[in-house]
């Protein structure tokens, strides 16, 4: 059922004592019945307003009927998950206490490592990669073996053999993260912990009784009872039982002795893309920025990406992004490469041919929501496709690109380099502490010797010289320590550059996640249900946010520590962006003044800067 202003909504009950001959008014898509025509019109007008949200996908600003269609499409996609995987996914979901994002990532990673009867994979056979289907899973002396059927050219099984499960691999994930997310939402009745529908549990033989090790709710209830008991004792005049902080943020209660907290600043939400699509925009842009060298794609600002995706015509920036990913998939010689070979495509993506390659990819996705746009792309109307669909297409391309050998090799190299740098940092920090302790001991010993000499009244010239020499050594040692601190800072910077992916800085009381990207001067905030985004863009907002966090709560304490750790980096990035915006406004004013005398070219407008994009790293 669609959400009204993001809250549950109930349909009208049918009128009582309804006569079969009575004239009534019925709303077609809800089947609601009204005796009064004005009440009927009032409800119908409500359904026509864009205040409805799709409960499954989180799409907002829909009419009621559009939200119903969106929910239907989302449920269809959720149920497109291969039946062979359903029991496994439901079993991992049942009574899990993970958040939706973490649960989806865990299941997705596990699916790539597991094998299932009936699933199609690939394996090396006679020196080449051949598609196959698992017919039966065997257990041979503790080694998992699989009886597989090998596919011929017509997608028919030509022969069978037994191979090790570890020798099988997916060229394409058996299910996308987005489909997993929709399937979990559609299959469960509650969260924290997740509980699947009883009929599904019964169908797949999944236990419905909570396991003994699930103590999440009991712990929360006990903490709430302890807090309530403490309040009751205060009312009765007894001493309050002290609470050991931090505790779960939702259990924190205001206290008269607490320091005053700032009011949390409101989030800016002036995105050009739909707010439910901001996550896809950030994911695609961050991927292009992080792997620009291997993609042969020179960097561009996030605002240019946002303006380009909202533009009603295809433009060079979007063409270059698509072309870069297509070239990567072609070089990988995976499923997409096979599709192009079957169509006998020339493997050169250009400004003219890129839409043909896009249509081939959309056919390969087997997603009705995406493939339904093939006709529009072929007729040259890519720019008129809904912005959220454009971003979903790019997200699918990125998810496919992440699985290529080129990206995996980079990720593996970065992991190794990061581990080596972390080891060097630990060793450097350890030596720094040892020298610091040694210097402290020397300084204390010198102080004691000087005190004794003064008391004896016979401090010699040699002792003074010796003290001066030790002092000089101490100064040299202090200089070395400063040098080592600089090296540690340099190591931390290099480690950050090798980060494989962006991760949230932390969560607040209500589980909203806070994100900072190295190349973007904003602090983004993602709602707990993954559907809404906002951001902070000034140092003052950052300071107010930090002052609003209650360190008595586990999540807000951890978030505040992270914000303090990266405060200089965050505030510098925010201030730089503010200066850039001022300069941009001045430039726009200049364009406006000039346009009163001479017709200004559209590309002179900074908001159209993406039209001037030139891929300087393009492999010609």
Automatic annotation (TrEMBL):
Domain of life from the UniProt record: Eukaryota
**Boundaries of each WAC domain copy?**
22-128
Outline the extent of the DDT domain: 275-335
Q: Kindly list the places in or outside the cell where this protein is found, as annotated in its UniProt entry.
A: Nucleus
Where are the stretches annotated Disordered?
A: 211-237, 422-483
Any one Gene Ontology cellular component term annotated for this protein: chromatin
Q: Which UniProt keywords apply?
A: Nucleus
Composition bias type Basic and acidic residues, residue spans: 222-237, 424-436, 463-482
Question: Which named protein is this?
Answer: DDT domain-containing protein
Please report the organism this UniProt entry assigns to the protein. Urochloa decumbens
